[in-house]
Amino acid sequence: YDNDLINKITVKNNKKLEIKRGVLTLASGRVQFNGTPPLAPEEPFDMNLHIINLNIQKLSESVPTIGKFLKSGTYQSQLNLRGKLNLADIFQSPLQVSGTQDLSLSTYTFVPAPESLTTKTDEKLPTTTLPKAFLKDGPLVQGLDINTRLNLNEFVFDKLKISGIHTQARIKNKNLSVTGDVQSVFGGKIKIN
Questions:
Q1: What does the alpha-carbon distance between residue 190 and residue 163 come to, in Å, rounded to a whole number?
Q2: Cα–Cα distance, 144 to 94 (Å, whole number)
Q3: C-beta separation of 183 from 152 below 8 A
Q4: Which ranges of the chain does DSSP label H, i.e. alpha helix?
Q5: Are the C-beta atoms of residues 155 and 161 closer than 8 Å to each other?
Q6: Are strands 144-157 and 73-83 parallel, antiparallel or unpaired?
């Protein structure tokens, strides 16, 4: 592990803490960060996070539940987080998150819920509602501008195998756009626009 967690910290004239370069090294990858973190509730912050080659296989060794679905791959991102945290209701925090993320996976195996978790036809499923922050007009969605690329070599569900999945998605100004293609499913190809 990197023993030099935060390389340089300065205090600005306005008494804000500024991290010039921080590094967190994990068994599964590295996280670099810099910016102005919040020192108190409701204090504005502006932070950059760069996740470098997060190894999915090593992550799944630490978090066994992930290993049931994902065998190997990498995740990378460069994100900027700005705003204020509302500790009374974190989902109502006025945040702006922008940047890019890339996920490359060899295989994703869909594992259905065990029978003990499924319901009989006469049983009612519990209802859940999304916090308002995740709805189209919620503060978390309004402040997003994120590009996401996914490359998945193979998706497996029982006997169904889909290979060569490549997508690019962007959420910005409350709108989601997706493009991509599938190289092989049921003997054919799919293009997503």
A1: 11
A2: 11
A3: no
A4: 56-62, 64-67, 139-142
A5: yes
A6: unpaired
Q: Which two tokens stand for residue 85?
A: 């945290």
CA atoms 61, 152, 108, 75: torsion sign: positive
| pLDDT 10s digits, 76-98 | 999 999 998 877 777 778 889 99
Largest CA distance in the chain: 65
User: Residue for token digits 């009612």?
Assistant: 124
Helix (H) or strand (E) holding 35: strand 29-36
Supply 95's token pair.
Answer: 């945040």
What is the residue type of 20?
Answer: K
Which amino acid, residue 10?
Answer: T
How does pLDDT run across 130-170, given as a tens digit for each residue?
Answer: 555 555 666 777 788 999 999 999 998 888 899 999 999 99
Q: Global pTM?
A: 0.74
